[in-house]
Amino acid sequence: MNKLPIIDLHCDLLSYLVNTPNGTPNDVDSIGAAIPHLKAGNVKAQTLAIFAATKDGSRAFGQAQFERFQQLLDEQVFVDLAQVSDWDELAASDQIGARFAIESGSAICEEEGPLEQAFNRLVEWEQSGHKPLYISFTHHPENRFGGGNYSDNVGLKSDGKALLEYLDGRGICVDLSHASDALAEGIFAHKAQQSLDVPIIASHSNFRHISGHVRNLPNELAQEIIHQGGLIGMNGLRDYIHPSDPMVWLEHFQYAMDLGAEKSIAWGVDFFGTDFIADPARFPLFLPEMENASCYPFWNQAWLDRGISEDQLTDMAWRNAWNFMDSLAR
Q1: Exposure of 169 in the CB half-sphere (CA atoms within 13 A)
Q2: Is 50 helix (H, G, I), strand (E, B) or coil?
């Protein structure tokens, strides 16, 4: 079981490459999602987030990352996961599949620009042959779409409602990992009121019941994602697990199972370039047991040792995420 193939729902390789002069996807000392790390961890499918802070130039930065994503596919660093129909064939190959996602609506729309910027960018990208797996409306602060993790009293704004309605029936998920509780509640409420067909996930979040960080999901939001058949990707950052004990990650996983997430749990470890973090209090960002993508076999064994069945572990490793993405394509 240590050789289980892995699907991971979130990393920031694209922003690292665009931000780093002469950066390559093989930079093992700078980002935990470098290709050698992914291969060592038997990652067979990796979601690459397009991230942009809410500031002038955010849309251009998002476009640069999309173009870098296309280049990675053209250079056959990754294969286009959206074009893969046979999981077993991919899992048995030496290739890694990739899809892109959007981490903050600021990557597709400036704060002062017309809202049509967002819709036009999504159309342009889809016409080029690529559709995002998901979109987070915000990052940590609020933007024109709603409240981020650190603006909890800010909910779903009018532009957020328009974006949610635009996504109806398009097979693009909304990601709650960086939503304020008020924004997440507003998304669920507006989706229900308008009978919108928009899947909901949390691509890289743990559980606030175990670790009280605001980036983790409160019970009611986690339960609603599970109820709606979404995914919750387990996040590997120290801040969202425990200051020093990596084994608390097992408690997050067990709590997910207790909530009924057996078919909703997945990986979303959130590897990113560490050179861009200015706050020394956040270091170490990752504890040694999860500092890069070679960690998955260690955690597979840790969960087996704890008594999780091989079938449950396979669900978490890849089957839940694959079945979910396959359902979006139908």
Answers
A1: 2
A2: strand
